[in-house]
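Researcher: We're teaching a course module on how sequence relates to structure. For the next exercise, students receive a sequence and then see the predicted structure as tokens, so they can try to spot secondary structure elements on their own. Here is the exercise chain.
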Amino acid sequence: MPLNLHNIISGLVDILYPKTCLVCKKRLTDSSVDNLVCFACWGKIKKNLPPFCHRCGRQLSRKNLTKSICADCVKKTLHFDRAFSPCIYEGAVKELIHQFKYKNKDYLGSTLSKLMIDFIKEYELPINFIDFIIPVPLHKTRLREREYNQAQILSNHIAREFKKMVSNDILIRNRYTKTQTELEPEKRLSNVKNSFSVTHNDVFKGKNLLLVDDVLTTGSTVSEAAYALKNFGANIVFVLTLAS
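Model: And here is the predicted structure for the students to work with:
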């Protein structure tokens, strides 16, 4: 197609179906992130800031500074060693994650993973000591429904940036569970209890692992996944989610 004709057609498409920000729905200008989100909405994404809880990774309140662990984590048994999240799960990033996860906008993984990659670099997370990156798996039934695993997409982008290996098929979800968002916090642990297993017993023995998911709320899902990995010999299991 001649270049001028291509430009004309592209211009007509933009007039008839103008691209809008995925958050505020206003028409996008040249000032946008990946031609998906306007700079105003991107700037409203709330970041987790230090000091961080040494378990869940959320910002510590002043009263918990001396303990280095938040009040919620003190009450829980969590099987991962430490979690990190660049964003607070509200506002703009919550809307983007919802569209990424439930509205078939898998291409948002590239844009959202930049927040995780920048966080790793800014706070010098120990990515060099990680042997495998592991996306939290979906049950095969839910994977058929959604057609992709958002955690796997995020993992692939992170692995590409830091030249790490992704393990997609050794940790599996062996039991179909209710979506955690449908449950009260106290029921989430029992919902995911014993829902993960490892298919090759010796692969993770003595290895340091990074579990990746989109959101950490109570930590029940990633804790149960870490429990399965450590039962098969994993050394350290860190968790990285986009938001918490």
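Model: If you want an answer key for the exercise: The chain has two domains: 1-42, 45-243. The chain has nine helices and nine strands.
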